[in-house]
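Appendix C reproduces, verbatim, an entry submitted by the partner laboratory led by Prof. M.T., so that reviewers can inspect both the input and the predicted structure.
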Amino acid sequence: MNPQQLARDVKFLKTYTLGTTAALVVLVFCAFSKPEKIMRFGEISVERLNLIEPDGTVKMIMANKERFPQGVTIDGKHIDYKRSNPGMLFYNDKGEECGGLIFGGQKDAQGKVQAGGHFSLDRFGQDQVIALTYQQQGPNYTAGLTFNDAPEESVTAMQERYKNATPEEKTQAQREGKLGLLPRVYMGTTRSKSSALLMNDQQGDNRVMLLANDEQSTLDFKDSKGRLRLTIGVDAKNQPVVRFFDEAGKEAKTIGL
């Protein structure tokens, strides 16, 4: 190879290298830059989809059961527990979970159905205060809307405060609304297929229950000690009736037709 041919080959290699490098830089820039127009897809299949803010803060996750987030992180502390359903999770401005949707269903070899769905919204740093739930075991199922009270302290702070507490202390803290959830209102169906409305006091004790089925419709009132004191309704004979009960639970007076 003569000197002139060698010089031409070297010049060609330099030009080729520069061109390739420039093309690579353009491709990288285009890949990480914002598209100038909205991308449109007729159909897309993913195992997990993360919705994030420009700073990277996660706002929502949709995932199958294999890629669904496990446990929850509050105040920088992770509480680990297994999740075995697909669904969707919502996150607040701190990047902490604040609600979500899970669902699933299966039938075993004997034909028994186990299924359910659950949509919830959480109090800030705490657990669910609104929950819409369907649960089925075999032929029986319930479906309803529940409202709960949740403590002011975050889940992690609450766990740290009561980690060494006795069962009695935990029970008292729960009744005072300082530990765990307290159910306040439930509207939905029961396993016996009645329609029900349950209303509880600040300690989670039931005070009012409205029940309706094909046999009767009743409205019960209880006192602060959980004792039934008054029932208003229509009995199995389609007759209106009002019943009063004493402190021992015995019927003291009845008004009806």
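The first strand starts at residue 48 and ends at 52. Additional entries are available on request from the coordinating office.
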